[in-house]
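Hey,

The postdoc asked me to send both predictions to you directly instead of through the lab channel. I've kept everything plain text so nothing gets mangled by the mail client. Protein one:
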Amino acid sequence: MLGPAAAPRTTAESPPIPPPLRIGALELSSRVLLAPMAGITDRPFRHLCREFGAGLAFSEMLSANPELRHTRTSAERLDHKNEPRPFAVQIAGADPDALADFARYAVDQGADLIDINLGCPAKKVCRQAAGSALLRDEALVARIMHRVVRAVSVPVSVKTRTGWSPKERNLEQIGRIAQDAGVAMLTVHGRTRACGYRGQAEHDSLAALREHIRIPLVANGDIDTPEIAHKVLEQTGADAVMIGRGALGKPWIFDRIARFLATGEHVGPPEIAQRRDILIAHLEALHAFYGEARGPRVARKHIIWHCQDLPRFDKARGALLKAQSAAEQRRLLLSYFATLMTPETDA
């Protein structure tokens, strides 16, 4: 068990303790959720974030294209062996029948919740008229939601953006369509598709949407501290926050935010030895999941995210990222952390 780790605390004024969040028949232990992120939220990362208190963790996006259903990528993204429940699977596509069929398949594989992707801004996804490209066709969005909701017995959620572009915002319409279709939860990233990940996410659109829908509403985008999470929840009336890039290299953020929301406590980051243990355990999980050849390559980005704010990483980075075997990567990482726990002396 890695987290949450003990650390120095200070106390602010305690906000009211929110009740558990319900999504259909599911009851979540925390209102701080892990976002689906392609190439990142694999089973090892989801498991790590759940250990640090994420109330729900979404799979990487899965294509509803039946020709891709039995590929290695799809099998890995649906793998949730020994993972805490509930397990949420995000699906993407533009064909209502294909999406409904894939949703049924994902539930057969163990999914406890199906999430429809209306937010991915990637060109290769939008060229297939999927992801955020769907925001330009509200009639198709309605058909997709109705078909998927009626295809499965588990709750269906939707993750979207505020619109196609700053001049083509239609969040309120998408929210109404989702609620009318029986969608159980709506997550909103506070940018349009045209904005990509540039600039600052805005959450005023969620506050306006809150006036028009009753289903659970989740805020996403640039939420990376307990204070920001608290502010966004207060300003928008959202029921939960979803953390994406804010969790990279900092899986403990879920516990920190949840504690602050529940008690007003500020909990500092883990000590160096704890961070070493967290990263080593994550790497070992990645090595086991992807194997000796792919595991060290997949682990490289996580090493960077985890260590980029630590001293002397610039000196150790080159060798760490060139390691070709799991054993070498682990040995070099332990050696680097040993230097952090030894006072540096002048030559």
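Protein two:
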Amino acid sequence: MTSFHAARPYWLAAIVIGMGGVCIWGASFLPGASRYAGIGPGAFAMIVGVGLVLLGGILAIQILRGATFEAQATESADTDRPVNHKALALALIAAAVPIVTIQALGLPLTAMISFTLVARAFGSRTLWLDLGVGLVLGSLSWLLFNALGLQLGDFLPFIGG
């Protein structure tokens, strides 16, 4: 009996479909449209839920066809390698930076700082490139959200605009 469940893990498809059902049920309580962007939070949750149900169905079909699911070797992870505490601290600081700076500096500069810290945590040594990429990504994000009618504050609040 154990080998049947291991060979045909229908429970996995059922869990994915169940998660989709929960998303769809939760989305039914949220507004599907908003005044500003036209797309409300319920629409995104509904899309995710429907996607999960479809993926669960596809997974069930794959299991029915006899697809096997074997553990893949980890990418290039070396479990014996010690934790890089400096990189971990930089990533944690990058995650915390928006809490402190987004209202005072705005999204573009906050994204620039966070992106640069995360890039450093992953070993990047190109400071000016990381700052530039972070600034461009943050600016594009601000412009996109602004175009959708979502208010993320001023572009550069410390200069009043």
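Summary for protein two, as requested: The CA atoms of residues 6 and 71 lie 12 Å apart.

Thanks,
C.
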